[in-house]
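Please check this.
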Amino acid sequence: MSRRSGRKADLIVAAQRAIAQHGTSVRLNQIADIAGVTSGAVLYHYPEVEDLLVEANRAGMDRFYNERLEAI
């Protein structure tokens, strides 16, 4: 995994945690705080925060699907 893709994966996990803590009112700075980076660093990788939230949701759905598939 490249350094950039590793950072994006970290941001996705941070976004998932922020959503779990703050629900639909999650803010960019909350995601950045959990990831241990600045808001600017988040925006560098995801210029549109909505794209990060979509990726976080997609990653969660993929994990859910794969866990169910393995259980079959």
